[in-house]
Prior knowledge:
It is a single chain. This protein is of the alpha/beta class. It is built from 8 helices and 7 strands, in the order H-E-H-E-E-E-H-E-H-H-E-H-H-H-E. It has a 7-stranded mixed sheet, sandwiched between helices. Helix 1 packs antiparallel against helix 6 and helix 4 packs across helix 8.
Amino acid sequence: xxxxxxxxxxxxxxxxxxxxxxxxxxxxxxxxxxxxxxxxxxxxxxxxxxxxxxxxxxxxxxxxxxxxxxxxxxxxxxxxxxxxxxxxxxxxxxxxxxxxxxxxxxxxxxxxxxxxxxxxxxxxxxxxxxxxxxxxxxxxxxxxxxxxxxxxxxxxxxxxxxxxxxxxxxxxxxxxxxxxxxxxxxxxxxxxxxxxxxxxxxxxxxxxxxxxxxxxxxxxxxxxxxxxxxxxxxxxxxxxxxxxxxxxxxxxxxxx
Length: 256
């Protein structure tokens, strides 16, 4: 029996579900520590498949959640009281100062053309006393990977981000940037990511390479054998590595 390979949209949906399973627990834990009122107005920047938008809508039952993403294909079925989905480029969005009591941005700023400019604008969108949580990825150098196989695969993976113009070091600057923008109580949490950093992390990497790894081979950046070998050794202690750091950074706009 032959299996049917998922379409691009189906693969995107599969990976989005795994992405949410891997990252939502920490995001919800951190937001749960913040004193968001039941009537808070929330903005989810780069909402993806909408799991956090839906969670936020339940967290603020008398409030509102605006989910914005350049593509809403994965958000079409997401419904909740107080939740509005908008397709748009967040760098082109215009919100009045003080429009939101909470802003969430996960894995967004580092892939934008002008992340620093948007961060400045997003702080203006916060109401006095409002909170912002920025989660983004800091990519470690491929040369420091723990195995030759890891170095080849990680370098190929990073080439995709570089080709897309991503700033793979932006996350490290976020704590200082939020403080410089005037947010108070800025703090952050670091989570190591990479081979051997948890069951869900391994499964996300495995499926990502299975479903989206073909262009790496077609471009000559890595061999199919290397990809298969990397996936096969994800559970091996000798292959455990930290290839990425997830920065979760939060701060509050001082009350008026």
